[in-house]
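Batch job 17 of 40 flagged for manual review because the log was empty.
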Amino acid sequence: MLKKFLNEFKEFALRGNVMSLAVGLIIGSSFQGVVKSLTDDVLSPVIGLFAGQNFDYLVLNIFGITLRYGAFITSVINFIIMAFVVFMLVRVMNRLMSLGEKKKEPETPAPLCPFCKTKLHPEAVRCPACTSIVASRGIPHNRRNKWKLNVR
């Protein structure tokens, strides 16, 4: 029973999707460090120029409670940068995936019988529901005369 469980786990863990997820998590966590450094070491000091101090240390004291809104805003900036980068990655990947696909031609709607409104085959001459003559589509001129169809 344990051997079966381990084989199932091995099959699951070595599947392509799980390995891609693991690689994505590792790259994402290392990229998060880069984004955190960007906001902490570059953006926060620039924004701090306008506030007169390091942006992370902006606090608000209300009734003895210290609200570190500067650190919160820094976290929001981190999130926005990460969300934008993930959006751009997904956008690029979707475009790369669609390069191999052929453009689908818009389908022309099936013709309808003018009498009973049944969908017809594009080459149909008679309606299969009401047997009305609907057109001379798809029949060569010489065969039309042979059948003596009264086509309007």
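Reviewer: the log was empty due to a logging misconfiguration, but the result itself is present. The domain at 14-99 is CATH 1.10.1200.120 (Non-ribosomal Peptide Synthetase Peptidyl Carrier Protein; Chain A). Unflagging and moving on to job 18.
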